[in-house]
From TrEMBL, chains A, B:
The keyword Transport does not apply. Belongs to the PPase class C family. The keyword Cytoplasm applies. Keywords: Cytoplasm, Hydrolase, Manganese, Metal-binding. Its cofactor is Mn(2+). This is Probable manganese-dependent inorganic pyrophosphatase. GO terms for molecular function: inorganic diphosphate phosphatase activity; manganese ion binding. It is found in: Cytoplasm.
């Protein structure tokens, strides 16, 4: 059986990297030759996770078709969030927890998506369904993903299954998940060493809404004011990005992980800004909007924008 | 919890009808209010199955949005194969075994597809994963679906999982699946009472290939010659259909279930016919092509046409 690459989305977050590692391990136990790779370097939070569980970062690729014919996707399905030459390879498996969009195949495939808080929660179910034992290190990576995606269960995307998975995995990994989880989240919020360009690229996804490209970036912080103090510089790099990439709208969601509120910097075309204001019934003032209780791009931003566009 | 409708594709075959019944029953056990309906009347084979297991045919609907907000799809995902107002309802669950195409959502959903011979085989797995007991009648419906879709394991779409499922289900339903299966398949091949228009509608699906509409219909028979004797009449109704529906290509696959060969009647635009000839490396002579060993639209027709288009 020829090797297949397993990877998560561009600008990988902890789930994109760890779900690839966990799913590749599972598929190897099931007889596939699978290698976990990544579409970018791990961010600060993910580095903390990999260090903690003594796991090497996956090799970074920018193209897949030169080395394999087939790939497996985790934590995404939309082509514009995937490897640049996704059209030149065959996708054989998808495990995901996002909406399905622009994802077309010519053959039947394995597709497993559930509306859970984290892709790694779906993979945790797959381990159990296939009766494959979860190694302690993999358990640690999966629980880190779930804590990351659900902001330690504070995100409205959190389900009882995510909580059950973390409890099960914490026992296997022998981790106090609440203390570890907060340390891990904090490790991801040291933004002072990053440029504004790096921050808007770090965890950003492009969506095609009614034919327009919309970019939604998110940074987590425990100190909202010091991030907002850099607003003028954010505006400069976002304006440049919008021109270069033809984004109709750019939303930078700055999320305070301690109280679960976000402040958004929103820049785009007149129609894009109007769609945003309609989606959230809020006025954008000085390119900014306060979004209390909004922490989830997937559940609290993208569906609302999709509807408005 | 508001009621959701569960249904298979237009021109329902045995799997489309029985998978809806089986999945609705499973979802009810899992706490959903679910009603199985159908997008058309059962065909002769399906009638035989429903009679045999003493199951009422599901209510036929043509629209969903007047009665529910949410639906669950089985055995299909492509919107043009679904209920006419699919765009006006929210799809919450899909269980399928086909390619994924033109299927877009704004929210995360349950999506379970596997490249197995039958959607009911996926549903059989779901019963086991969720530890829900399969009633004898439901077991009978599911095994009938699998026999129908795999032509009693003769189709190349057949997997070991399909065989395992039929054996498990035959025990529960207390059925000699080989004898029953052949009777069931034969019940579906009495084509003499049907008009040519009925025959090309009975099990037909529309595919969008590079922006063109391609229709692939299939009839099963134990007497190929008597079906081919009606070629002139088939040509008349297919030509009318192509004009009315703007099909670029119409393929009527006439499959001999005893020896697993098909003869196809192929009518379409010049480019459509060229794509077909390229896809199968065969000349169409007198609107006809012999396709030895071809029994599966999904595996032996659609991917080849997709590639050629």
């Amino acid at each position: 059986m020829a090797k297949e690459l397993v990877f998560g989305h561009q600008n990988p977050d902890t789930d994109a990297i760890c779900a690839a590692i966990s799913y590749a391990y599972l598929q190897k136990q099931l007889g596939y030759e699978a290698e976990a790779v990544a579409l970018g370097e791990p961010n600060e939070e993910t580095k903390y996770v990999l260090d903690h569980f003594n796991q090497e970062a996956p090799r970074v690729i920018t193209r897949a078709s030169a080395e394999v014919e087939k790939v497996m996707l985790v934590d995404h399905n939309e082509p514009q969030q995937s490897v640049s030459d996704i059209a030149d390879v065959q996708v054989t498996h998808v495990v995901d927890h996002h909406r399905i969009n622009n994802f077309n195949t010519s053959d039947p495939i394995f597709y497993r998506a559930e509306p859970l808080g984290c892709c790694s929660t779906v993979i945790w179910k797959l381990y159990h369904e296939n009766q494959v034992a979860i190694p302690a290190k993999i358990a640690g990576l999966m629980l880190s993903s779930i804590i990351s995606d659900t902001l330690l269960f504070k995100s409205p995307t959190t389900t009882q299954t995510d909580r059950d998975a973390v409890k099960d995995l914490a026992e296997i990994a022998n981790v106090d998940y609440e203390a570890y989880g907060l340390d891990m989240l904090k490790a991801g919020t040291d933004l002072s060493s990053k440029s504004e360009q790096e921050l808007i690229d770090m965890d950003a996804k492009t969506f095609e809404l009614s034919g327009k490209k919309v970019r939604v970036a998110q940074v987590n912080t425990v100190d909202l004011d010091s991030v907002l103090a850099r607003q003028a510089n954010f505006e400069t790099v976002i304006n440049a990005e919008n021109s270069a990439e033809d984004y109709d709208l750019f939303v930078l969601l700055i999320t305070n992980i301690l109280n679960s509120d976000s402040e958004a910097i929103v820049i785009g075309s007149e129609t894009g800004l109007a769609a945003f204001e309609k989606a959230f019934a809020k006025k954008i003032v000085n390119n900014r909007v306060l979004l209390p209780g909004v922490v989830s791009r997937k559940k609290q931003i993208v569906p609302q924008l999709t509807e408005a566009y």
